[in-house]
């Protein structure tokens, strides 16, 4: 009886060991089939290509719907990948001030061979929610230059803009004619707006645009003291019903910075979405894409 009980125990041990072995084998097999632990199974190259093609097709279809919904004449052209090596523009000839060396550079065009232009929008007077939605749906990049006396009416509007990837830059506190101010007054206008943007939006800008495009050496000295690295002006300006150009040929060129303003029907013969339709028709007809200014600086 004792021997039989011992044999029964041995059989039980063997049975349990067998179950454990089978379970262990299954675990190992499962691990092997899944790539093992921390390394997930990679899809085959054909599967990756198919998934990428599906994503692109879906994005293109969504953009086509947005183009139709917002009444654009044509599908916007896609900007090339941002350059790996950033461009450092030099001060445009004729835009210098005495003692320019060491001061922020002033430019109207980014040196590039890419057929792109850059849309920039000034001040902050009009706060059209349809404009935000339109630009988000169409994925059109732009850069804002803000003045606090207008922005403070609704800081949240520009926070939504920032959340959509738009850079918020400095256009002074009160949009005053800078050459008519002392150095200290100019510094208060620029540094004060730096403080506002940092407090409200978390980051001090590196780009500054003087109101009306007017400046003197004190403006640039004050800008540098406030942490400004560059002063982008513009080479063309877009309205609801027309484009104005700086150059004699009345045309746009690779790397041109385009100016417009936060304005609506009180000031224009149309809305900000109307202005964007005009702008996109002009640049697309001429074979240009809209790129993000900061990607080229």
TrEMBL record:
A GO molecular-function descriptor: hydrolase activity, acting on carbon-nitrogen (but not peptide) bonds
Domain of life, source organism: Bacteria
Q: Which InterPro entries match?
A: Glyco_hydro/deAcase_b/a-brl, NODB_dom, Polysacc_deacetylase_ArnD
**CDD domains found in the cross-reference section:** CE4_NodB_like_6s_7s
Keyword Signal among record annotations: yes
Q: Which protein, by its recorded name, is this? A: Polysaccharide deacetylase family protein
Q: Which UniProt keywords apply?
A: Signal
Q: PROSITE patterns, per this entry?
A: NODB, PROKAR_LIPOPROTEIN
Biological process per Gene Ontology, one example term: carbohydrate metabolic process
Domain called NodB homology: residue spans: 115-297
Instruction: Tell me the organism's taxonomic lineage.
Output: Bacteria, Bacillati, Actinomycetota, Actinomycetes, Kitasatosporales
Q: Which residues form the signal peptide?
A: 1-31
A Pfam match: Polysacc_deac_1
